[in-house]
Design brief:
This protein has eight helices and 15 strands. With 308 residues, the chain is of the alpha/beta class. The chain has two domains: 182 residues, Formyl transferase, N-terminal domain (Rossmann fold, 3-Layer(aba) Sandwich), CATH 3.40.50; 92 residues, Methionyl-tRNA Fmet Formyltransferase, Chain A, domain 2. The chain has a seven-stranded mixed β-sheet with strand order 5-2-1-6-7-8-9. Strands 10, 11, 12, 13, 14 and 15 form a six-stranded antiparallel β-sheet that branches. A two-stranded antiparallel ribbon has the order 3-4. The N and C termini lie far apart (59 Å).
Length: 308
């Protein structure tokens, strides 16, 4: 197997394990493309992406760009054998798409063709899927539509949030990615056209995070877990936003009107279309995260009990 010259494109924490795995292997990562530094924290300090931080510490050339058009010539000049993209946050178009000898491959955190798009993990959880996984596929012009070199499946746990799931998939997917890269290098990789119903996973908006209390309890629970940690589930009470950081189905409890909050036997319950859910951890506006029942006990006696 001849080692490959690889250009790697990625930005968030979920893309770090794959870069680590490639750096530890026999192939040469000749450059890393990542999004530009962005302001973080209360002081809005310009901060490199997690992928940029890893690449810089490893002494790998870093190209920072939110759009690849302006850096296309620079990347093509590297004459890479293969491009690898994991959650970069931008589109790869011609002539860069066909620039590397073996083209580009993409590690995507879903069982393609289910959940093509920017938020596959979140959408899978919100839809109540019981299974998800990762796919490595050949990048083509159409969104997440290329033939697949390998799939990895895993169940979605009943209490798993999108954050927990993505962290696990990033580690597991890195192993799949390295295996595909090695097979491409040895000439044994074979890709299979995607088969099945196509579903789309658009980027989450703040509207996705507002809890729909009128839905069944299972759907409310799935929504909360799907938008945790980002953008973060929330509801409004007395005109103020309250984040719901953790909740659980309250099996066997008498129903409440959708959005109605009530303390029962030391548990703060919220009504849905069916049985209620229990709020476990909340964060009121401008305050720290706290036990939901303790927060409720500290509210004024005449405060509203109807969330929206």
């Amino acid at each position: 197997m001849e080692p490959l010259r690889i250009v790697y494109a990625g930005s968030p924490t979920a893309a770090v394990p794959s870069l680590q795995a490639l750096l530890a292997g026999p192939h040469e990562v000749v450059a890393v493309v990542t999004r530009e530094d962005s302001p973080l924290g209360r002081k809005r300090v310009l901060t490199p992406t997690p992928v940029a931080a890893l690449a810089e510490s490893a002494g790998v050339r870093v190209v920072k760009a939110n759009r690849l058009g302006p850096v296309t010539d620079e990347l093509l000049a590297l004459e890479a054998d293969l491009g690898v993209i994991v959650a970069y946050g931008g589109l790869i178009r011609e002539p860069l798409l066909s620039g590397p000898r073996l083209g580009w491959i993409n590690l995507h955190f879903s069982l393609l063709p289910r959940w093509r798009g920017a938020a596959p993990v979140q959408r899978a959880v919100m839809a109540g899927d019981r299974e998800t996984g990762a796919a490595v596929f050949q990048l083509v012009a159409e969104l997440d539509a290329g033939p697949v070199f390998g799939l990895q499946r895993r169940p979605i746990g009943a209490r798993e949030t999108a954050g927990h799931l993505l962290e696990a998939q990033a580690e597991e997917g890195a192993e799949l990615l390295v295996d595909v890269v090695d097979r491409l290098a040895s000439g044994t990789a074979q890709a299979t056209p995607q088969d099945g119903e196509v579903t789309l996973a658009p980027k989450l908006t703040i509207d996705d995070a507002r809890i729909a209390w009128a839905a069944p309890a299972e759907a409310v629970d799935a929504q909360i877990r799907g938008v945790t940690p980002e953008p973060g589930a929330f509801t409004e009470l007395d005109g103020e936003r309250v984040k719901i950081l953790d909740a659980v189905l309250a099996r066997g409890m008498a129903p409440l009107a959708p959005g109605r909050l009530e303390l029962r036997a030391g548990r703060l319950l919220a009504g849905t279309e069916g049985e209620p859910i229990e709020l476990v951890l909340v964060q009121p506006a401008g305050r720290r995260a706290m036990d939901a029942a303790d927060w409720w006990r500290g509210r004024p006696a005449d405060a509203s009990a109807q969330a929206s």
